[in-house]
Design brief:
By secondary structure, this protein is mostly helical. The protein is built from eleven helices and three strands.
Length: about 260
């Protein structure tokens, strides 16, 4: 082997030795600061996540039981409001409840109130009957925009009020009362639809069924279903108050128990 080759090998070994023994560069103060900041941020995020996981059940319980919006969620869940109706009421309306701890309706003239165009439901107490009535007002506001739908509801409610099938006894009595109270027509064959309070035609039939409009003692005939299919799924999570005779409004329990209606049996 020549002297040139030996020199090259020596230089290569020396270079290799330099690579192996080269010391890593130290982090600058800025890099150290950023690294520590990232670690602190990650630690804080983990702590916050852990706290939220621990508090989540309590926050949810408080929201459902002690806020008007939580009460609305509970009503919509228990009485089987459709996904479309729930989303509409959440996004397009607000709700106020004066006394969430009271279930009994209270009010000098109204236990609840919906003013068309206001997008606000006001409830004096946490009465499910009143809440369903007022939420139905808010939902009907979207349907009555079509004059044909408004007219058809009035006509079909009048039709229901004249049914003699005892299977629909309770529904017929409610329809008779609604027509008598809110039609403003002495002759149901000659209806001035501009004078009819169609809002209460809808809301009082809604709270009468409490969401269970296809089955049970308060079921409606099929020609009425199309008005409530969008609001209710007919799949309740609890028994409606009329099945346990616990409604605060007697006519929601059973019309046959009210002297005014006994003559109509």
């Amino acid at each position: 082997m020549g002297s040139g080759s030996a020199a090259n090998i020596a230089r290569g070994a020396h270079a290799t030795n330099l690579v192996i023994t080269k010391q890593p560069e130290e982090e600058t103060p800025g890099e150290v600061y950023r690294s520590r900041s990232r670690k602190k941020l990650l630690f804080a995020f983990l702590i916050i996540t852990l706290v939220l996981i621990i508090l989540a059940p309590g926050i949810f319980y408080f929201f459902i039981n002690y806020t008007p919006y939580g009460y609305r969620e509970k009503v919509m869940y228990n009485y089987g409001f459709t996904a479309k109706a729930r989303n509409y009421l959440r996004s397009e309306t607000t709700v106020d409840v004066m006394n969430l701890s009271e279930k009994k309706p209270f009010g000098f003239t109204h236990s609840g109130y919906w003013k068309p165009g206001s997008k606000n439901v006001k409830l004096n107490t946490a009465s499910d009957e009143v809440a369903i009535h007022e939420f139905a007002h808010a939902w009907w506001e979207t349907l009555r925009v079509d004059p044909k739908t408004k007219k058809a509801l009035v006509d079909d409610t009048i039709k229901l009020s004249n049914i003699t099938d005892k299977v629909y006894y309770q529904a017929v009595k409610r329809a008779q009362w609604v027509v008598h109270t809110y039609c403003s027509c002495s002759d149901t064959e000659l209806v001035d639809y501009e004078k009819v309070d169609d809002h209460h035609f809808y809301a009082f039939m809604a709270d009468f069924t409490m969401g269970k409009f296809k089955t049970g003692t308060h079921k409606l005939p099929e020609f009425m279903w199309k008005y409530f299919d969008g609001l209710f799924s007919n799949n309740l999570k609890i028994a409606p108050c009329y099945e346990t005779k616990s409604c605060y409004f007697p006519d929601n329990n059973d019309y046959s128990c009210i002297p005014t209606y006994k003559a109509l049996l």
